[in-house]
Amino acid sequence: MHLRTLTLRGFKSFASATTLHFEPGINAVVGPNGSGKSNVVDALSWVMGEQGAKTLRGGNMADVIFAGTSSRPPLGRAEVSLTIDNSDGALPIEYTEVTISRTLFRAGGSEYAINGSSCRLLDVQELLSDTGMGREMHVIVGQGRLDSVLQATPEDRRGFIEEAAGVLKHRRRKDKAVRKLEAMAANVARVTDLTAEIR
Ligand code: ATP
């Protein structure tokens, strides 16, 4: 599995559609200060479901939408698409190429899609969760982030390892199942009470 292309449209400083092509192995993005290198990394996190505006170096999520310049008006939406080569079947989906897209509208609302079909954030997270590219994004170590990984508490460190090992997906599913069981137990207790009252 490797990243094939990343397309940004209206994301941060990338007002016009811009596509980066990656090769297997090491790829380098070079450019002068302020030219948008970190914005490319932000776009990668964002399309994979990052929810924290601060992680994306903004105050709120709408800050990822192109805010305009002296020569160009602001845009109403940001869109990022990431195409992953899945010929080795690392992603649990029957396509050799998988494109994940995320769109955010300034007016509110956002959309996710996998290979052009609308989906939920959860679907994107589940798709990526066995690859270590899941929700907590420890595969992306941004500037200054290395310190926080090195200084992490043992609990946080365990979280990194679980994320990379794909355990978090099962923990989330277990939590969801436990919540359902608790709701069911409450329903059963209520029905038992009502039955007792009727008798
Ligand atoms: P450095 O080498 O200094 O770390 P960099 O190449 O990583 O720089 P970035 O931090 O990716 O640069 O890009 C910063 C630029 O992106 C700034 O000029 C900033 O104004 C611009 N920018 C960030 N968000 C937006 C936005 N929503 N709309 C327009 N431009 C934006």
Automatic annotation (TrEMBL):
It is found in: Cytoplasm. ATP binds at residues 32-39. Signal peptide: none annotated. Belongs to the SMC family. Homodimer. Required for chromosome condensation and partitioning. Contains large globular domains required for ATP hydrolysis at each terminus and a third globular domain forming a flexible hinge near the middle of the molecule. These domains are separated by coiled-coil structures. This is Chromosome partition protein Smc. The gene is smc. The chain holds residues 1 to 199 of 1183 of the full protein.
